[in-house]
Amino acid sequence: MTIRSILTEPNKILRQVSKPVESVKKEEQKLMDDMLETMYNANGIGLAAIQIGIPKRIIVMDISRNEEEKKPMYFVNPVIDNKDKENITYEEGCLSVPNYFAEVDRPKKCRVQYLDYNGEKKALVADGLLATCIQHEMDHLEGILFIDYLSKLKKTMIVKKLSKQKERPDRIIV
Ligand code: NI
Fold it and tell me: Could you tell me if 145 and 16 are in contact, meaning their C-beta atoms sit under 8 angstroms apart?
Protein backbone atom coordinates (compact mmCIF):
# COMPACT_ATOMS: atom_id res chain seq x y z
CA MET A 1 0.00 0.00 0.00
CA THR A 2 1.16 3.48 -0.81
CA ILE A 3 0.30 6.76 0.83
CA ARG A 4 -0.68 9.21 -1.90
CA SER A 5 -0.76 12.97 -1.65
CA ILE A 6 -4.14 14.59 -1.11
CA LEU A 7 -5.16 17.49 -3.35
CA THR A 8 -6.38 20.62 -1.60
CA GLU A 9 -8.64 23.47 -2.61
CA PRO A 10 -8.23 25.49 -4.79
CA ASN A 11 -7.48 22.82 -7.39
CA LYS A 12 -9.43 22.31 -10.63
CA ILE A 13 -9.09 18.53 -10.45
CA LEU A 14 -11.25 18.50 -7.30
CA ARG A 15 -14.02 20.08 -9.39
CA GLN A 16 -14.10 17.26 -11.97
CA VAL A 17 -17.03 14.88 -12.17
CA SER A 18 -15.71 11.37 -11.57
CA LYS A 19 -16.46 8.54 -14.01
CA PRO A 20 -18.19 5.24 -13.19
CA VAL A 21 -16.00 2.17 -12.81
CA GLU A 22 -16.76 -0.59 -15.34
CA SER A 23 -15.81 -3.43 -13.06
CA VAL A 24 -13.84 -3.89 -9.88
CA LYS A 25 -10.49 -5.42 -10.81
CA LYS A 26 -7.05 -5.66 -9.20
CA GLU A 27 -6.30 -2.10 -10.28
CA GLU A 28 -9.34 -0.71 -8.47
CA GLN A 29 -8.64 -2.83 -5.38
CA LYS A 30 -5.05 -1.55 -5.28
CA LEU A 31 -6.43 1.98 -5.57
CA MET A 32 -8.85 1.35 -2.67
CA ASP A 33 -5.98 -0.03 -0.55
CA ASP A 34 -3.91 3.08 -1.23
CA MET A 35 -6.88 5.37 -0.55
CA LEU A 36 -7.55 3.70 2.79
CA GLU A 37 -3.90 3.94 3.81
CA THR A 38 -3.83 7.61 2.74
CA MET A 39 -7.04 8.33 4.67
CA TYR A 40 -5.84 6.66 7.90
CA ASN A 41 -2.50 8.44 7.61
CA ALA A 42 -4.28 11.80 7.38
CA ASN A 43 -6.68 10.93 10.24
CA GLY A 44 -9.71 11.22 7.99
CA ILE A 45 -12.90 9.16 8.11
CA GLY A 46 -13.60 9.28 4.39
CA LEU A 47 -11.80 9.80 1.09
CA ALA A 48 -12.90 9.94 -2.54
CA ALA A 49 -10.54 8.89 -5.36
CA ILE A 50 -10.62 12.37 -6.91
CA GLN A 51 -8.97 13.70 -3.74
CA ILE A 52 -5.83 11.87 -4.81
CA GLY A 53 -6.37 12.99 -8.40
CA ILE A 54 -8.16 9.93 -9.79
CA PRO A 55 -11.56 10.68 -11.37
CA LYS A 56 -13.20 7.34 -10.59
CA ARG A 57 -16.40 6.90 -8.61
CA ILE A 58 -14.73 5.23 -5.64
CA ILE A 59 -14.98 6.10 -1.94
CA VAL A 60 -13.39 4.60 1.16
CA MET A 61 -14.57 5.29 4.68
CA ASP A 62 -14.05 4.22 8.27
CA ILE A 63 -16.22 5.98 10.80
CA SER A 64 -15.36 3.59 13.65
CA ARG A 65 -12.54 5.87 14.91
CA ASN A 66 -11.11 2.82 16.56
CA GLU A 67 -7.39 2.20 16.18
CA GLU A 68 -7.58 -1.43 17.33
CA GLU A 69 -10.59 -2.52 15.36
CA LYS A 70 -10.64 -0.89 11.98
CA LYS A 71 -13.85 -1.08 9.98
CA PRO A 72 -13.08 -0.03 6.44
CA MET A 73 -15.95 0.49 4.01
CA TYR A 74 -15.63 0.62 0.23
CA PHE A 75 -18.15 2.14 -2.17
CA VAL A 76 -17.77 1.83 -5.93
CA ASN A 77 -20.28 3.65 -8.19
CA PRO A 78 -22.49 4.62 -5.21
CA VAL A 79 -26.01 5.84 -5.96
CA ILE A 80 -28.43 7.30 -3.43
CA ASP A 81 -31.94 6.11 -4.26
CA ASN A 82 -33.79 7.33 -1.19
CA LYS A 83 -33.28 10.29 1.13
CA ASP A 84 -34.95 11.24 4.38
CA LYS A 85 -36.91 14.51 4.51
CA GLU A 86 -35.57 15.13 7.97
CA ASN A 87 -32.15 16.80 8.12
CA ILE A 88 -29.28 16.53 10.55
CA THR A 89 -26.43 19.00 11.15
CA TYR A 90 -22.80 18.10 11.64
CA GLU A 91 -19.72 20.26 11.77
CA GLU A 92 -17.87 19.00 8.70
CA GLY A 93 -14.28 19.16 7.69
CA CYS A 94 -12.49 17.79 4.64
CA LEU A 95 -8.98 16.54 3.93
CA SER A 96 -9.07 18.74 0.80
CA VAL A 97 -10.03 21.85 2.80
CA PRO A 98 -7.48 21.62 5.62
CA ASN A 99 -8.12 23.35 8.94
CA TYR A 100 -11.63 24.60 8.15
CA PHE A 101 -14.87 23.33 9.64
CA ALA A 102 -18.46 24.39 9.14
CA GLU A 103 -21.94 23.22 9.98
CA VAL A 104 -23.75 21.57 7.07
CA ASP A 105 -27.34 20.27 6.95
CA ARG A 106 -27.94 17.02 5.10
CA PRO A 107 -30.68 14.37 5.03
CA LYS A 108 -30.47 12.31 8.22
CA LYS A 109 -30.99 8.98 6.46
CA CYS A 110 -30.30 7.72 2.98
CA ARG A 111 -30.21 4.45 1.08
CA VAL A 112 -27.14 3.77 -1.02
CA GLN A 113 -26.57 1.17 -3.72
CA TYR A 114 -22.99 0.39 -4.64
CA LEU A 115 -20.41 -2.24 -5.49
CA ASP A 116 -18.16 -3.42 -2.68
CA TYR A 117 -14.43 -4.22 -2.63
CA ASN A 118 -15.12 -7.48 -4.48
CA GLY A 119 -17.40 -5.88 -7.05
CA GLU A 120 -20.54 -7.32 -5.50
CA LYS A 121 -23.80 -5.36 -5.57
CA LYS A 122 -24.77 -4.07 -2.14
CA ALA A 123 -27.33 -1.74 -0.59
CA LEU A 124 -27.15 0.04 2.72
CA VAL A 125 -29.44 2.27 4.77
CA ALA A 126 -27.22 4.87 6.37
CA ASP A 127 -28.19 7.03 9.33
CA GLY A 128 -26.57 9.91 11.23
CA LEU A 129 -22.79 10.25 10.88
CA LEU A 130 -22.60 7.44 8.32
CA ALA A 131 -25.27 9.11 6.15
CA THR A 132 -23.55 12.50 6.38
CA CYS A 133 -20.16 11.01 5.58
CA ILE A 134 -21.45 9.12 2.52
CA GLN A 135 -23.19 12.22 1.21
CA HIS A 136 -20.08 14.36 1.77
CA GLU A 137 -17.94 11.82 -0.11
CA MET A 138 -20.49 11.41 -2.91
CA ASP A 139 -20.41 15.19 -3.39
CA HIS A 140 -16.68 14.83 -4.17
CA LEU A 141 -17.65 12.56 -7.10
CA GLU A 142 -19.63 15.48 -8.51
CA GLY A 143 -16.85 17.99 -7.89
CA ILE A 144 -18.66 19.52 -4.92
CA LEU A 145 -16.96 20.50 -1.66
CA PHE A 146 -18.72 21.21 1.66
CA ILE A 147 -17.67 24.87 1.48
CA ASP A 148 -19.98 25.19 -1.55
CA TYR A 149 -22.90 25.09 0.90
CA LEU A 150 -21.64 28.12 2.82
CA SER A 151 -22.38 31.76 2.04
CA LYS A 152 -20.42 33.19 -0.87
CA LEU A 153 -18.57 35.52 1.48
CA LYS A 154 -17.49 32.76 3.83
CA LYS A 155 -16.47 30.46 0.99
CA THR A 156 -14.41 33.17 -0.74
CA MET A 157 -12.61 33.92 2.52
CA ILE A 158 -11.72 30.26 3.08
CA VAL A 159 -10.47 29.74 -0.50
CA LYS A 160 -8.38 32.94 -0.27
CA LYS A 161 -6.75 31.79 2.95
CA LEU A 162 -6.09 28.32 1.52
CA SER A 163 -4.44 29.88 -1.57
CA LYS A 164 -2.15 31.94 0.69
CA GLN A 165 -1.20 28.82 2.64
CA LYS A 166 -0.19 27.18 -0.62
CA GLU A 167 2.01 30.09 -1.71
CA ARG A 168 4.07 29.82 1.42
CA PRO A 169 7.29 27.81 0.97
CA ASP A 170 7.61 24.56 2.88
CA ARG A 171 8.89 25.07 6.37
CA ILE A 172 11.96 23.05 7.26
CA ILE A 173 13.59 22.72 10.62
CA VAL A 174 17.18 21.59 10.40
NI1 NI B 1 -14.07 15.75 1.87
Answer: no
Residue from 68, 137, 142, 167 carrying the catalytic annotation: 137
In angstroms, rounded to a whole number, what is the distance separating the alpha carbons of residues 48 and 140? 6
Surrounding ion ligand 1 within 5 Å at CB are 94
CATH class of 12-167: alpha beta
- Would you list the domain boundaries of the chain? 12-167
Q: How far apart are CA 71 and CA 25, in angstroms?
A: 21
How do the pLDDT tens digits run along the chain, 174 residues long? 899 999 999 999 999 999 999 999 999 999 999 999 999 999 999 999 999 999 999 999 999 977 778 999 999 999 999 888 999 999 999 999 999 999 999 999 999 999 999 999 999 999 999 999 999 999 999 999 999 999 999 999 999 999 998 887 777 788
Model pTM score: 0.93
